[in-house]
Amino acid sequence: MTFEQWMRSVLDRVEGALEQYLPAESIEPAKLHEAMRYAVLGGGKRVRPLLCHAAGELTGAKAECLDAASAALEMIHVYSLVHDDMPCMDDDDLRRGKPTVHVKYDEATALLVGDALQSQAFVALTSDVFTPAQQAALVRELALASGSIGMAGGQAIDLASVGHTLTRPQLETMHRLKTGALLRAAVRMGALTGQLDNGGPDAKALQALDAYSAAVGLAFQVVDDILDVTTDSATLGKTAGKDAKDGKPTYVSIIGLDASRTLAAQLRSDAHDALAPFGARAQRLAELADLVVNRVS
Ligand code: GRG
Question: Nearest Cα to 272, choosing from 287, 259, 251, 252?
């Protein structure tokens, strides 16, 4: 199977899983469920589900478990986007090429969409496709990655940094939490699902996967900063040039465009190196590192 065919089949599965784990619009409160589905379905690159599936395939996880874990990861990710776009945070009106949730609906609905998606993610993780041990491990992994020592903490640092200069290590810490933690969780949750099936996690393999995730997570952010200044809003599906306009420190503002491109290439190579212990079995993860660095939106 080519990488494109593999991606297509995973993306189809993930779309089906999101359909399955999101409450139907016919269920009351219908407007909230409609808005949750508007936010989640039919858009986005689904990078976290792809990482989860690739890592799970490496450790022999069941596809239906990876679908549920992927749905949970994507719901947490979309909750963060919906809240991040609200006027009290980034105040953006375009996301995934569509009006943001508070523009399409209203602010109270956007707040509730994020809240409810967060809860629904944990409903998916406690579905009966998982054993009780898997449920506990996955819930802990996702809760830690999305809370104050993960994504929400990174967002707090981000908001506090507007208009200030950050050092490169400070910028790195912010991104490690804000975007890196959930990307890392995607890889770990995929891997843990398989390893728990096969009788316990392998610490060495998880260490190698963490090194891979650290490189991919940072590369994702460096590329995001590059695209923010080199690509138009229509291609990005979100407002381009927003970081500079908002006075946000970025890799481009701190080290410049050329050095940012060099850094992204270095991180791609670091990600590949981290996968060496797995050999050809890690092919999909390696291809995903390439995708993250070469993406144009
Ligand atoms: C509100 C608790 C809370 C957290 C928000 C992740 C985040 C924290 C905000 C997103 C803002 C942002 C643009 C971050 C830069 C990197 C990033 C996460 C981009 C969006 O993720 P993609 O590119 O989006 O994976 P798609 O739409 O493809 O899923």
Answer: 287
